Each structure stands twice: as C-alpha cells, then as structure tokens.
What does this fold into?
Amino acid sequence: TAFTHLQSAVNTRPNEPVFQDEFSLNMAILGSALIANNNATVGAQLANQAVKLSDNITENHPNNIVFWKSRVRVFYLLAQIDPKYYKNALEAVMVAKKLAPTDAKISYNAGVLYGQNNQIEKGIKELNYTIILKPDYRDAYYARAVFYHQLSEIATGQEKITDYNKAVSDLKYILTNLIPNDDASEKMLTSWGEKL
It folds into this structure.
C-alpha cells in the first residue's frame, strides 16, 4: 500500500529528496520480500531501482545524515537476500559515521557490519567505542559477546579462553547491570553451558 502512495508523492514532487529517500527504502523492502518469495525478476528490478535512487539522493545531498542512514538500511535489507550488499552497507555506515562521529547507533551499526563483512576484530573495536559513547547500550554488549564467542571458536590456547570469558562477561554484564531477565542473554549463556 505504501509503495503506491510513495510513488505518487515522488511523481507529484520529483525534486523532493525526502520522498525519494522513503521511496528508495520502500523499494528495497518490497524488492527483498519479492525475491524471498520467488519473484526474483520483479524483486531484482525494485532492488536495482532502490540502489539507483539512493545513489542519486546521497550524491546530491552528500552531507545529509538521514539519507546516509537510509542508505545503510537499503543495503542491509538487500544483504539479507544477497550478502554482497554487506560491503555497500559498511561503506555507507562509514560515511554516516564521519558525519556523526558521536552517534552511538551509527557506531553500533558499523560494528555489526564489520562482523557481517568478516572483520570481527574491527567489529569489536567499533563496539568498544559504541560502549564508550553509550555505556548502557545493551545491544552493543550483546553483539560484542557474539563476536568474542566467534573468536573463541577459532582461537587456540589462552586466547581461546580469554575470548570466551569476555563473551560470557558481556552477557553477564547485561543480566547484572542492564536487563536482569534478558531472555536472549540467558538463552545464549545456557547454550554455551554456563549456569545463570
């Protein structure tokens, strides 16, 4: 339903970048859904149009943080269908980070996207910065715990133990200091064989 209204808004006011930005995001959502439901041709067309419109918006408004955040979302949505878009999402979030270096949510998204791009150590470093910006950011602790656990599974010796302990520590920090009954943290610890 939103697609038709946004298309009409863009056609009525073709020079309004806010309408184009929303339309780009809507096309990415719709395109991803269509591809996931085996309508690859139309879905791919919408995905390509979403990227092209996002390209145009950020090229014409290179310092607008809202448009860069939307671009991250466009590529992240498309990456759910095709992981090649994670690289584009990371590039977009890094531009957003330059525009708003103290925005904890942007920093968190950068950390997660580093992980999605198999750069786990960079992801952890970015999440450390996120926690400095916002010490009570539950999702940053959780993501960092996941990354530490991933590192512990490929590490050996003392490094393996250290990374694992950091993962457990982050989840216990959430339960002790942020959200006492955090279901996801409890389930993760239980799946690792830890007692609550």
In short: The chain has a mean pLDDT of 96. The chain has ten helices and no strands. The first helix runs from residue 2 to 12.
